[in-house]
UniProtKB/TrEMBL annotation:
It is an enzyme of class 1 (oxidoreductase). Transmembrane segments: none annotated. It comes from Halomarina ordinaria. Belongs to the prokaryotic molybdopterin-containing oxidoreductase family. One of its GO terms (molecular function) is formate dehydrogenase (NAD+) activity. Its cofactor is Mo-bis(molybdopterin guanine dinucleotide); [4Fe-4S] cluster. Residues 8-66 form the 4Fe-4S Mo/W bis-MGD-type domain. It comes from the Archaea. Keywords: 2Fe-2S, 4Fe-4S, Iron, Iron-sulfur, Metal-binding, Molybdenum, Oxidoreductase, Repeat. This is Formate dehydrogenase subunit alpha. Its EC number is 1.17.1.9.
């Protein structure tokens, strides 16, 4: 055939960037990544033929020269190449030494949400079984941990309840808040915009006039950090006007009276005082949402990354429940998840300090017994350290060794100078990644890993859909898939893991994780368009949307958990009068490890910047395009000004993707009490033209 003659291999797979989960074919020749092309639309349930700019043009990083191709060990402060034999022996002996000297909890593992489910499962098993440590966490701590905490309390599953196309794409009404949907979840945003063009209402509440707001029925500018006020205000107005869904509240929920009482102080006037949202905007949105047949509630980091992020999500959940927009087609909760596999690898697979795979409680003796039966060892039955706690414990001298798989805390942690000090203080740091990241620079041993294009496995997208990932080429040099590396390490530490393939690992997951009980690679191959969990056995077709009959509690009822209004951890002061908020741009991804290596994307946005409202810029004497010095109590950065009315007066926005002008130099270690998420979305800063001093 043509294919054979040209030597081009075509492999169907799932996008490695965001959790929308677009599917396509990778075309490769002689281990060169040539192109991304559409695949059979029946195998691409979310995107059909389309992809966004990252999915289509963002894969230059895969076959770059600068990929890590051999293990590296540090000697006298310098890295040198090493064999796998040497590197793995060194890691095994150092980890064993720390465990013997200081106990297993002096070790902490930081898992990735970019690897496959099978890999995440093995990483948490490595931490718990092989290291015997309770300290396992992942980057979801920094993104949707407050969503998971809130939804588990109110409806039972810490996940999106609905589908991208059939529900989000078809609803009558949207409330989108704290989500820059167009730039962070592009293909999903296109569905929303199409549906709005066809007549759906769209309400956007956000401190920044993000692109999706241009399509809104109404855009309301809010003050960063006061979201509970306007959401409670909407609930109050809805109850006050008798617009709540009485039958739903009566039959499917409990604690309504507590909710009614809690929202009472949030009159439209009080909401305006707290948030600047005018009463007529609040009541119009509340009435339209309550009267709509179906409504979707979409949110992301703008809700979650606050010192009261869990309260924000509780408030949203209450609003969805009180209006009865849950558990039916076209409605539901849509926390838009970030990384390609954060739902699976960052949640379902138990890379969490309090949950074993499948959200099973790590302190439940029956659950521990079940794992002991399959593993041979009982996992530690205590809640471990969360990522930010592991860093403070490293600074306090209690955590001595860390295993970081595919994460970049040297750029992603709040208050970077602190986080970097912690990395420096560790006795032994192992970083497993595909590039020499900012974090890998601090490592004692660096292990070269494979990208999504170089391995098999599964990713779970934001709508709980488990989809296959296909190997299109070999990893460069001696780089290996994470699942192979972790297995090698486990065996060097005295275990005898013998997984032949990721499919083999999935069989063990089947056994231990009830919501994945019916998901196997063979079955995914046969169905073509993935399976949505819960999928409990081989005959279970999966669950397109949650809570149709009952909520995930023994009594089947949802709980109203009234949300408390809290102030941000840092308020503007005379010295630092501006409010900083951070976020993403379309062309980049997280700490930029991948996208800063793609010329075509760097051509669009090649460096960091600060958005400043024209009024603020004028007052501070800042011109569009000129370098600006931005300072907080933690540090300072210099970035170019973009004068625009996207942020409000007195608010500045800086993207999160760059090492030069890293925004987390400025952010603060202030955490949500329930979930431990850092407050990336509010910090107090000042700004002036950078010019000569
Ligand atoms: Fe990939 Fe997300 Fe873009 Fe789809 S929308 S192509 S999953 S980055």
């Amino acid at each position: 055939s043509d294919v054979r003659r040209s030597g081009v291999e075509k492999t169907e797979t799932t996008c490695g960037y965001c959790a929308v989960g677009c599917r396509f074919e990778v075309h490769a020749k002689d281990d060169d990544f040539l192109a991304v092309q559409p695949t059979d639309p029946d195998h691409a349930p979310v995107n059909d033929f389309s992809t966004c700019v990252k999915g289509k043009f963002g894969y230059e990083f895969v076959d770059q020269e600068t990929r890590l191709q051999t293990p590296l060990v540090k000697e006298d402060g310098e890295f040198r190449e090493a064999t796998w034999e040497e590197a793995l022996s060194r890691v095994a002996s150092e980890f064993a030494g720390i465990r013997d000297d200081h106990g297993p909890d002096a070790l902490a593992t930081f898992a990735s949400s970019k690897g496959t489910n099978e890999e995440a499962y093995l990483v948490q098993k490595f931490a718990r079984q092989v290291l015997g440590s309770k300290n396992i966490d992942n980057c979801a701590r920094l993104c949707h941990s407050s969503t998971v905490a809130a939804l588990k309390q109110t409806v039972g599953f810490g996940a999106m309840s609905n589908r991208i196309n059939e529900d989000i794409g078809e609803t009558d009404c949207y409330l989108i808040t704290g989500s820059n949907t167009t730039e962070s979840h592009p293909v999903l945003a296109t569905r929303i915009k199409q549906n709005v063009r066809d007549g759906a209402d769209l309400f956007v509440f956000d401190p920044r006039k993000v692109e999706i707001a241009e399509h809104a029925t109404q855009y309301s500018r809010t003050r960063p950090g006061y979201d509970v006020a306007w959401i409670n205000g909407m609930i109050r107005h809805i109850i006050d006007e008798g617009l709540h869904d009485e039958a739903f509240v009566e039959e499917r929920t409990k604690n309504f009276e507590d909710l009614r009482e809690k929202v009472e102080p949030f009159t439209p006037e009080e909401v305006e005082r707290l948030t600047d949202v005018p009463p007529e905007e609040l009541t119009r949105a509340a009435e339209t949402i309550a009267n709509a047949d179906t409504c979707v509630f979409g949110w992301a980091m703008g809700m979650t990354q606050h010192s009261h992020g869990t309260q924000n999500v509780l408030a949203l959940a209450n609003l969805a429940l009180v209006t009865g927009h849950v558990g039916k087609p076209g409605a539901g909760f849509s926390p838009f998840r970030g990384q390609n596999n954060v739902q699976g690898g960052g949640g379902d697979m138990g890379t969490l300090p309090n949950n074993l795979p499948g959200y099973q409680d790590v302190t439940d003796p029956e659950v521990l017994d079940r794992f002991a039966e399959v593993w041979g060892e009982r996992p530690p039955g205590e809640v471990g350290l969360r990522v930010p706690e592991a860093f403070s414990e490293a600074l306090a001298g209690n955590v001595h060794g860390m295993y970081v798989v595919g994460e970049n805390p040297a750029l992603s942690e709040p208050d970077l100078s602190h986080a970097r000090e912690a990395l420096e203080d560790l006795d032994f740091l192992v970083v497993q990644d595909i590039f020499m990241t900012e974090t890998a620079e601090y490592a004692d041993v660096v292990l070269p890993a494979a990208t999504f294009a170089e391995k098999n496995g599964t990713f779970t997208n934001t709508e709980r859909r488990v989809q296959l990932v296909g190997k299109a080429m070999d990893a460069p040099g001696e780089a290996l898939p994470d699942w192979v590396i972790v297995q090698e390490l486990a065996n060097r530490l005295g275990f005898d893991w013998d997984y032949d393939s990721p499919a083999d690992v999935m069989d063990e997951i089947n056994d231990l994780v009830p919501i994945y009980g019916g998901i196997s690679h063979d079955r995914l191959e046969a169905v073509g368009d993935g399976l949505q969990w819960p999928c409990r056995d081989a005959d279970d077709p999966g669950t397109p949307f949650l809570y149709e009959e009952e909520f995930n509690f023994e009594d089947g009822l949802a709980r109203f958990v009234p949300a408390d209004m809290g102030e941000p951890g840092e308020l503007p002061s005379e010295e630092y009068p501006l409010t900083l908020t951070s976020g993403r741009v379309l062309y980049h991804w997280h700490t930029g490890t991948l996208t800063r290596r793609v010329e075509g994307l760097m051509h669009h946005v090649g460096e960091s910047f600060v958005e400043i409202h024209p009024e603020t810029a004028e007052r501070l004497g800042i011109e569009d395009g000129e370098p600006v010095l931005v300072e907080s109590k933690r540090g300072e950065i210099t970035v170019d000004a973009r004068v625009t009315d996207r942020p409000g007066v007195g608010v500045v926005f800086i993207p999160m993707h760059f090492a030069a002008g890293a925004v987390n130099t400025l952010t603060r270690e202030s955490f949500d009490a329930v979930s431990g998420i850092p407050e990336y979305k509010v910090a107090s800063v000042r700004a002036r033209p950078a010019g000569p001093d």
